[in-house]
Amino acid sequence: MVTVNGQQESGAVGQTITDFLNKRDAPIDNIVVERNGDIIHRADFDHVKISENDKLELISFVGGG
């Protein structure tokens, strides 16, 4: 089980950040991912795997005008 934006989620353990975001239809180009207090660089999304008890924060940027 992992925590995503304060909510517990199952099924994410073992996925890369890219796979996880794609399954959520998240805007990969406009998102910041923090895992256990550390920001994951976009270049590492394909290599970093989610582990049991990870705490993820997903922050999307939205433009307006």
Automatic annotation (TrEMBL):
<dbReference type="InterPro" id="IPR016155">
    <property type="entry name" value="Mopterin_synth/thiamin_S_b"/>
</dbReference>
<dbReference type="InterPro" id="IPR012675">
    <property type="entry name" value="Beta-grasp_dom_sf"/>
</dbReference>
<protein>
    <recommendedName>
        <fullName>Thiamine biosynthesis protein ThiS</fullName>
    </recommendedName>
</protein>
<dbReference type="InterPro" id="IPR003749">
    <property type="entry name" value="ThiS/MoaD-like"/>
</dbReference>
<dbReference type="Pfam" id="PF02597">
    <property type="entry name" value="ThiS"/>
</dbReference>
<dbReference type="InterPro" id="IPR010035">
    <property type="entry name" value="Thi_S"/>
</dbReference>
